[in-house]
Write a structure and sequence with these properties.
Pfam families: GGDEF. It is a single chain. The protein has 312 residues and is of the alpha+beta class. It folds into 2 domains: 7-134, PAS domain (Beta-Lactamase, 2-Layer Sandwich); 152-310, Alpha-Beta Plaits (2-Layer Sandwich). 38% of the residues lie in helices and 24% in strands. The protein has 10 helices and 12 strands. It has helices spanning 7-10, 20-29, 49-55, 63-67, 131-151, 162-175, 192-199, 201-216, 242-257, 286-302, and strands at residues 33-38, 44-47, 94-99, 106-115, 121-129, 181-189, 224-229, 232-238, 261-263, 266-268, 272-280, 308-310. A hairpin with a 5-residue loop joins strand 1 and strand 2. The radius of gyration is 34 Å and the shape is elongated. Residues 7-11 have low confidence and may be disordered.
């Protein structure tokens, strides 16, 4: 049986002079769907012109049969249980958003339980199409995510930038055992200015992207690679000893020098100088490690380039 309110709660307010036809005209003029459905049987009792044009006439069907697709019973997102208070009386309106399963469009819905003319409780919903607003919101969110991503990435190589490198290293250091080793490499491409001067800056950009690609192919998931600036790269190796880091640096060095770079019809060899340092994680100071790795890297430059030098 349908639940009904006492007659004293179902009477019309004083001073209402609009006819039923006037009210229907008002509802049919709205640029939003308005419907009423029995809260127990789910029979669709009323659907305004906007709703009929979108979903068709009720014809005695249930609300979920008219307004949704693929439903064999009441919708699992139905708000009926949220519209009544603990005593089963109409409560505050519920405003929510959802994507309609029939037409795929987004709606902001305002649902409220009211007493129908015969005293039974019905759910009245006003559903406003917000598809364009949702699309704009999604675009803004995507733009924000992209901007955040760019703030931590080198645009050319898509590697971490210097700021993100320091943050990632500090975060990783905080999780390592204090006795675990933490190695750091500074890598500077040799005579990179000559590439730009001879083949143009587009060739230089191609080289930087290819260097990043070759390095990434030889690293573990937990290794932290960044473009430190210009033609310089930094690589942090959590949990890696200085000896193991030097061996990896040698493999990276060979990965560059053994295979020429190609740009257009030009083919040229690219080499790099490596500085390697390591310390126990509990004692690791990034600024000091970078300074020592930088000194080792410039020693590699002085000793002829295309080599790996360890910090003492």
């Amino acid at each position: 049986m349908s639940r009904k309110l006492p007659a004293s709660q179902a009477v019309e307010p004083e001073g209402v002079t609009a006819s039923a036809e006037d009210l229907l005209s008002i509802l049919d003029s709205l640029d939003a769907a308005v419907y009423a459905s029995d809260m127990q049987t789910h029979e669709l009792l009323f659907l305004n012109a906007y709703g009929r044009q979108t979903w068709g006439a009720p014809r005695g069907r249930k609300c979920w049969e008219v307004l949704q697709e693929g439903q064999s019973g009441p919708c699992d997102f139905c708000t009926n249980d949220r519209l009544l208070d603990a005593q089963g009386r109409p409560g505050a309106p519920v405003v929510w958003e959802f994507q309609n399963t029939q037409n795929g469009r987004w709606y902001q819905c305002r649902d409220q339980a009211i007493a129908w003319h015969d005293g039974r409780l019905v759910r009245v919903e006003i559903a406003t199409d917000i598809t364009e607003r949702k699309a704009l919101e999604d675009a803004l969110k995507a733009s924000h995510r992209h901007a955040e991503w760019l703030a931590y990435r080198d645009e050319l190589t898509q590697l971490l930038n210097r700021r993100a490198f320091f943050a990632a290293c500090q975060e990783r250091l905080a999780t390592l055992d204090p006795e675990a080793p933490f190695a750091l490499l500074l890598i500077d491409l040799d005579r990179f200015k000559l590439v730009n001067d001879t083949h143009g800056h587009a060739a230089g950009d191609r080289v930087l992207r290819e260097v990043a690609k070759r390095f990434q192919a030889r690293l573990r998931d937990g290794d932290i690679l960044c473009r430190f600036g210009g033609e310089e790269f930094a690589l942090a190796l959590p949990g890696t000893s200085q000896a193991a880091a030097s061996e990896l640096a040698e493999r990276l060095r060979r990965a560059l020098s053994a295979q020429p770079m190609n740009y257009g019809e030009a083919s040229f060899r690219v080499t790099a100088s490596f500085g390697v340092v390591a310390a126990a994680s509990g004692e690791a100071d990034l600024g000091m490690l970078l300074q020592r790795a930088d000194q080792a890297m410039y020693r590699a430059k002085r000793e002829g380039r295309d080599r790996v030098c360890d910090s003492p």
